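The authors assume throughout that readers already know how a fold can be written as discrete tokens. For illustration, here is how one protein appears when written out as sequence plus structure tokens.
>
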Amino acid sequence: MSQLIITDYFDNEVRKVNFNPKGLNLVVGINNESGTTNNIGKTTLIRCIDFCLNGKLEQLYIDKEFKNSINEDIFNFFKNKQPTFQVIFKDSTSELIYKVSRKVIYEQEKFKFNNQIFINDSVVEGDFDTELKKIFFNNLSKKPSLRQLIPKFIRKDEQQVSNVLKYLHPTTSSSEYEKIHLFLFGFNAKALLQSKSDLELDLNRKKKAKEALGSRFNAKDLKQILEITKKDLEKLYKQREQFQLDDKYEIEEKELKKVQLNLMEIEKKISDINLKKTININKLNELNDGIFQGDTQTLKLLYDEAKFYSTELHKSFDDVVAFHNKMIKNEMDYLNSKIEKFEIELLKLSNNRKVLSTQYAQLMLKLSKTGSLAEYTKLNEQIEKLVEKKGQDEKLLDELEKLEIEINTINDSLSELKEELDKNLQDFDNKLAIFNESFSAYSKLLYDTEFFVSYNPEEDPIKFYTKNVGGNEGSGKKQAIVSAFDLAYIDFINKLNFNFPHFVAHDKVELIDINKLEILFDISNSINGQFIIPIIYDKIENVYQKYKEKANIILELSESNKFFKV
């Protein structure tokens, strides 16, 4: 960052700040006679930088700490002077000069903005937010968004300065943070993690289905049972072929076989339809469980995920719940319709079976009046039962083998996926180790305690965290660690040549002990990046001259030299 320039409507210069290209950049607020630095604009510089990067104008004239009170002087300055904010950056690699300009326009009782980006004085066409993200993060994806990333580099509010990783609004979801942290630390294979999660879910379903089907007999059991059944049938068929009947019963025998075959066909159809009916009833029960009535936490997480990926999601959460339940209701109606059709088919088949069973019984009665025919009838009954059992076992075996093939296919896919994921995670872990080398070193300089960042890849979404060996910290210590983290991050992106911002700006550093602040100041002067800090003179009074001589003080503000001069 080279310069911040603010001009009024007539192009008169209001404020110009030249930044040190490397190291510490202090904005010092000089106390007035009553010992206060209120309303001089000590923190305004970093808020102006944030505004130039598509932040809100309100942060410059509304004070959240005082119940959102409006600073009328600054509000009227924007309203009447309609200033233009320009922040100028230089790409140290390409030597390109970027100028980001936002002109404040006050029309019809509200503020509007004319946004422009210049590269070497040439206007950049395109969406302001998109082009900024392209310049600062070399990335065009919608998520994480520019405004989710910038607060990591410009920490001005309580949530931002007090939390190393979770620096956004407290309602920000874990899935949003997952995308942010993976992006910041250079993980580029999130799709692999999602595929792994989907495959594992599918695998679990298939295994449960296989376990349910094979609760009595597994595939190997059924194969052995079928072999035994086939041998038994072969013997019975052979006995029936050798059976001698009187010629006068030949017609009845043929009719009996015909009825028998028809009965077997009907039994097979009934068995198939019953299986389909059971599957659909199970699906219906699952869908019924999916209707949200009281506990909507799961759907809320899905809603947050969808909202995270789409900035154009206009439906309210209640609308999403209603839509979800409506879709399930439609699916349930469809399944009920199918089940009803199955029941009608089963009724028809049962009636047909009843008629055929009556015919079969009559023929058997007629044929069984002789001793030899009674034996023949018994033989046919045995064959009929075995054929029915064989059909059921074959269908069950077919289902189990189909599931086994699907499970093996998923396992093969998972194996390939895990191999690819391991490569990416190894690369990511190496990157994280490079960051932690600096982070642990800087935190050790501060508190003789080494901090590091880590994560659990088995969690979905992945959660990142910081750890140390020293337990809990007070707010001052926490803020110093946040600063150490951000300075370590600059060191990290320098080592990996990431095209990310090489500056960090922190407000509210007064809570940090001056000795720790000096360590942070010295670290910042040793790295290839900018550490921009607004601070009151009293805090650094004893070391003021030291940093003045090092040219680390880029701006001094006072009652007579307010930031906007109003």
Notes: DSSP finds 15 helices and 15 strands in the chain. The longest helix spans residues 371-447. The radius of gyration is 38 Å. The first strand starts at residue 3 and ends at 7.
